[in-house]
Amino acid sequence: MKELEKQLQEKQIKPTAMRLVVLDYLLKQTSAVSLTDMEVSLKKTDRVTLYRTVKTFEEHGLVHRVEDGTGVTKFALCQPDCTANGHHDLHIHFYCTNCKETHCLPRTHIPEIMLPDGYDRQEINLLVKGLCAACKK
Amino acid sequence: MKELEKQLQEKQIKPTAMRLVVLDYLLKQTSAVSLTDMEVSLKKTDRVTLYRTVKTFEEHGLVHRVEDGTGVTKFALCQPDCTANGHHDLHIHFYCTNCKETHCLPRTHIPEIMLPDGYDRQEINLLVKGLCAACKK
DNA sequence: GCAACGCATGCAATCGTAGTGCATTATTTC
DNA sequence: GAAATAATGCACTACGATTGCATGCGTTGC
Fold this sequence. Notes:
The structure is a homodimer.
Chain A: H1 2-10, H2 17-28, E1 33-34, H3 35-41, H4 47-59, E2 63-67, E3 73-77, E4 92-96, E5 102-105, E6 120-131, H5 133-136
Parallel strand pairs in A: 4-6
Antiparallel strand pairs in A: 1-3, 2-3, 4-5
The structure holds a DNA duplex.
């Protein structure tokens, strides 16, 4: 359990009981989760507290927001090199149209994008939809 | 005005008064619009009717859905080669963090994406966030 | 040890968008 | 022109995001 606390403190997040529970939960996930997912899995937790917890995590570079086109915001743990100053999650997000799960594909990288003159890039979001490896079988 | 009707009929959409108004509005836009945008601009229109109108348009390949990470669905006219059988809007969508507008960049194209083994691609969504040409000045 | 402070938590409530059901109106077909 | 079909408008529901406020808890200074 000390390990969890350490992870929070490395990101300058005070390790409260709630936060440890949420971090522990996130570490166990294989796909990005919505607030509702968390709320259902972690009984006895208030939705708003979860909302603020992941918000804190996000602000400190521990989780990143995943937009998968469902209109529901999902969250997943960041790569270790993310900080409060900026996220570096330049990987592909994959939404499976069958199982409805959204996976981070951290081994992938986003190719160079050419923008028209005058456009200034700050962030890139690449979402691929299709069938995941498990559902394709 | 006959021109508008023709555009609808080419996509097998019956040209009603409402639909002509919506198409006319969409043709005048330089960025993707939300239902609320339409509702505000087109007075006297019911939100649900708009909702169903763009849904019809989408099903017939006249408009495509734009996901810009704001959680609000936006719509923009398709390229001419889209049909009811499939959209071919493989261009970049650009969300300006300053003016909050979302532009289609039809001249761009999405580079080849390498997915891990087992993943089956059906659709790609590439969203770039930053400053648009107008806001960068 | 305790008082004061700040931050975290939980509850209630609000807001905005998406979506459905149904009655009414318009349009097409014969 | 009447019947059938499709489109429209209104009422209402569902749900996620978000804020305000009161309470709880942990830390610090004395």
